[in-house]
Design brief:
Shape: globular
Order of helices and strands: EEHHEEHHEEHEHEHHEEHEHEH
Radius of gyration: 23 Å
Number of strands: 12
Strand order of the largest sheet: 9-8-10-11-7-12
Distance between the termini: 55 Å
Largest sheet: 6 strands, parallel
Length: about 325
């Protein structure tokens, strides 16, 4: 990309800016099939985008044109680095551009707001995710909290793969409470991994998205990636490992204390959960809630709370999360 220049306001309303690109071969990928990426930017930001050769004119309210300019610039740079641009990438660019323009102190496009895996580079898709990535880089223990679709588990797995690939840890340990089976997995067929697979499927989906199948199978077979149900963690010290506890809201206080005290030398731990989705028996205390209260303000521990604004699945998911949250607020206030 070679430059940005202001255009005359006569042809367009409010403000007009131009982008000029130096590689025409990348433009179909930037614009999307039938210009669907440009249509998405126009719709989300309320701007008009007109293409002329290798130039692109953006017009609309000043703040919106600035956000569109920043988003398209970053998407073009992404293509020049050999990365794909798809609908989620466009959504992320819009979200990050708006946030950065709202708060000039943010730098959401930094290299350290990404993790590298064998298959792809995993980047933040929202300001909340950028804060989550930074917390994982800066702290030995991080609690990632938030509703479904915010990427809390996916980014934890990406961080684990990044550290394993660069030799900063020797293994990855994945754990999750099997509430439905009451931690009594013996009645299920197969070996330990077969028994716990149904409960760890979201983590395995993330692993499959980041590692070639043969590498994943080999690392599982030699123990570099280990599946460890929380019931089997007692008595262990986890050194030089990246440890992930998923769905932590379904642990008991005793399980959570036991798990957190497994952290050993050279290790990192990420605990993920949604405090609003506790599946424990009625009246049972969540280990996640107790841990957050007990460890509040302790050095070396990061707590990141993701919201519906960080949902990166289908856009309908974000609306569903907000609808349920509104219903819960209404229920607490006695309106329903």
């Amino acid at each position: 990309m070679t430059g940005l220049s202001p255009g005359s306001a006569g042809e367009f309303a409010d403000t007009r800016t131009q982008l000029e690109f130096d590689d025409n071969l990348l433009l179909p990928l930037l614009y999307g099939e039938r210009d669907q990426h440009l249509d998405r930017i126009e719709r989300q930001l309320g701007v008009s985008v007109v293409t002329r050769g290798n130039r692109l004119a953006i017009s609309g309210p000043a703040s919106a044109t600035e956000a569109a300019h920043l988003a398209l610039s970053q998407l073009y740079d992404r293509l020049k680095q050999g990365q794909d641009v798809d609908a989620p990438a466009v959504e992320a660019a819009i979200r990050l551009a708006k946030a950065e323009l709202d708060d000039k102190s943010l730098d959401l496009w930094r290299e350290d707001t990404a993790f590298r895996t064998r298959k792809r580079r995993i980047t933040a898709h929202s300001p909340g995710q950028a804060a989550y990535i930074k917390a994982i880089r800066d702290n030995e223990l991080v609690f990632g909290l938030g509703p479904a679709g915010t990427g809390k588990t996916y980014l934890a797995v990406a961080a684990a793969i990044d550290r394993l690939m660069t030799g900063r840890v020797e293994r990855i340990i994945l754990s999750r409470p099997a509430v439905e089976a009451g931690e009594r997995l013996g009645f299920l067929p197969g070996d330990l991994r077969d028994k716990v697979d149904p409960y760890l499927r979201p983590i395995f989906d993330a692993l499959n998205d980041m590692l070639p199948a043969d590498q994943l199978a080999r690392r599982l077979s030699v123990g570099e990636i280990e599946v460890a149900p929380i019931a089997f963690m007692r008595g262990r010290t986890l050194s030089h490992a990246f440890v992930i506890l998923d769905e932590a809201q379904n642990t008991s206080p005793m399980q959570m204390k036991m798990f957190l005290t497994r952290l050993g030398e050279g290790s990192r731990m990420v605990v993920t959960g949604d405090p609003t989705q506790v599946d424990l028996p009625a009246g049972a205390r969540s280990g996640l809630a107790e841990a957050l209260e007990t460890l509040n303000g302790m050095d070396g521990i990061g707590v990141v709370r993701l919201t519906d604004q960080d949902v990166v699945r289908h856009e309908l998911v974000g609306r569903i999360v907000r609808a349920y949250e509104a219903r819960e607020v209404a229920a607490r206030s006695g309106e329903i």
